[in-house]
Amino acid sequence: MTISQTQKTHSKEALIKTLHFFGVIASIILIISISLETFRHDPFMAHSIYFDIQFWICIYFTVDFFIFFFLSENKKKFIAKYSIVIFLSIPYLSIFDYTSIQFTQEQIYLIRFIPLFRGGAALIMLMTMIVKRNSTALFLSYILLLFAIVYFISLMFFIFERGSNADVKNYGDAIWWAAMTVTTLGSNIIPVTTAGKVVTTILAATGMTVFPIFTVYFTTVISRLSQSDNNSNTPKKV
User: Fold this and answer.
1) C-alpha 141: how far from its chain's center?
2) Phi, psi of 205 (to 5 degrees)
3) How do residues 154-186 score in pLDDT, each as one tens digit?
4) Which parts of the chain span the membrane according to its record (predicted)?
């Protein structure tokens, strides 16, 4: 590989890391926006700042997708592998508002989380590029995504159950419910709405799926360290 090709490769990798980084930042901004709306009890469609944040973040994700498309060496393979990403980047709420399609406040609230899946993909890709060991990168990504899922679903549960469930008096009750549910210990807060029951099932299933991954990872790390110690203690033949 020539010097110019090496420089070109490094520049491409730096650009990809930068795009993933800004994708994560965009997701954080979106999370803050959703959180403020939730805690302030602000109707999303009535406040243009929330609407504008959602729209421009989706536009960034769309532009980001096409940049990656043009950077890819195999365009057909890229489309086959990442076509779902473009559907996660569409500003659905702006389209629905423009076409006057009506949704309930709960449905609008759920639709707002769609771009965050795109941000989650950017996080995993960024961690894989930064951390040398792929297993460690995936493990860290799983931890961050688990905390993110618990937080998002606790927000949803709070929105769905607030006013209908006497046990959900504030967000603290919702985060307690989420922590007990994801660890499959069970919570004393029982959902009463249909949407609340659905997210309870999703969160419990997430906990049962993700926690075994942690067990496998730690078992692998301990096994690797033990094998390394055994190799270092083995006397070398003269």
Assistant:
1) 9
2) -65, -35
3) 988 998 888 888 888 889 999 999 998 888 788
4) 21-41, 53-71, 78-96, 108-131, 138-160, 175-195, 202-222
